From TrEMBL:
Protein name: L-rhamnose isomerase
Recorded GO MF terms: L-rhamnose isomerase activity; metal ion binding
The keyword Manganese appears for this protein: yes
Organism this protein belongs to: Nonlabens tegetincola
PANTHER family, alphabetized: L-RHAMNOSE ISOMERASE
Catalytic activity, EC: 5.3.1.14
Length: 330
């Protein structure tokens, strides 16, 4: 949930409904990248990094409020993504902005309930186009380390410059026990928030290959907070979610097919051709029948999209929703 976008009017009621449907609330997300209605201070020039203490204090307080809301819903993590940065050289003092951010995050971290995590998201550019305070995984990791053991880096697939080796970032964060969460989407150019797997399915598989290895070999990492963070502005949102889940399950199943022992041996022998054969052999396997069978066995639809399209309720929902809504993805 993003607060205040998704702030429920009745916490008890929404919690009860979620419990009845076996739905749990994972990380809650704060929002200091937009000015809030009736807020005294503006985030135009940053929030947790702002040169003004009054602005920083307001942004810190918002995060504490979000923790309280999440606590009522059974959430166990707070994700912070900042738009803070600068659009022109000289606008910001890089060191001051970073230190302010660290100090603000420490204040938020101190207010975390004992069994909570703080997830620090990064992004290279946009909405600021010259510098972003938390620009990459290195900055995020430094801030997380500066907070403590319950703070981790969060990887959003779309928050990288083109051709960045995301699977390597995932691997090294796991090695250091600092991978806390994941946002799924896909992109051609920037933070495009397209459906995960729609543009670069092989890259998604390579990321899952590292995740499978890390989940096996790096138990120092927490259970990851997973989120589908895409913008479905020209699709039915539920259909987009189904396509996302399909892509994730497929990449995960293919990664599980990689013979890790065989790969380790080929790597030790520097048999480059064999290494590629092992990975691509898994990737080229059609796992769809396997996933369909797994769905059937767990009481789900073999092909959820087809099942959904045949449902009366879908047509009802489309009628109620009216024309396409435009969503903002972060
Ligand atoms: Mn995100």
């Amino acid at each position: 949930m993003h607060i205040p976008w998704d702030t429920p009017s009745d916490y008890a009621a929404i919690k009860e409904k979620a419990d009845a449907l076996d739905i749990k609330f994972d990380a809650v997300n704060s929002n200091t990248f937009q000015d809030q209605v009736n807020a005294k201070e503006s985030y135009k020039f940053g929030s947790l990094s702002n040169t003004s203490k009054a602005v920083r204090d307001q942004a810190i307080q918002h995060n504490l409020d979000v923790i309280n809301i999440g606590d009522k819903l059974g959430s166990k993590a707070l994700t912070v993504w900042l738009a803070d940065g600068s659009s022109f050289p000289g606008q910001n003092n890089f060191q001051t902005a970073f230190q302010n951010t660290q100090d603000s995050l420490i204040d938020i971290y101190k207010a975390l309930p004992e069994n909570w995590k703080l997830l620090v998201e990064y992004k290279p550019y946009e909405p600021n186009f010259y510098s972003t305070v938390i620009q990459d995984w290195g900055a995020s990791l430094m801030l997380a380390n500066g907070c403590g053991d319950k703070a981790y880096t969060l990887v959003d697939l779309g928050h990288h410059l083109p051709n960045t080796n995301i699977e390597q970032i995932v691997a090294i964060l796991q090695l250091k026990g600092k991978l806390g969460g994941f946002h799924f989407n896909d992109s051609k150019y920037g933070d495009d928030d397209l459906t995960v797997g729609s543009i670069k399915p092989y890259a998604l598989f390579l990321i899952f290959n590292e995740l499978v290895y890390g989940m096996e070999n790096n138990p120092q990492n927490p259970d990851l907070a997973w989120m589908i963070d895409a913008s479905h502005n020209i699709k039915d949102p539920l259909e987009d979610l189904m396509q996302s889940l399909e892509a994730i399950q497929e990449a995960y199943a293919k990664a599980l097919l990689v013979d890790q022992n065989e790969l380790r041996t080929a790597q030790a022998d520097n048999d480059v051709v064999k290494c590629q054969e092992i990975l691509q052999g898994a990737y080229r396997t059609d796992v769809r029948p396997l996933i369909e069978k797994a769905r059937l066995q767990s009481g789900g639809a073999i092909r959820p999209l087809d099942a959904y399209r045949n449902l009366e309720i879908r047509n009802q929902l489309i009628k109620e929703r009216g024309k396409n809504t435009v969503a903002t993805g972060l």
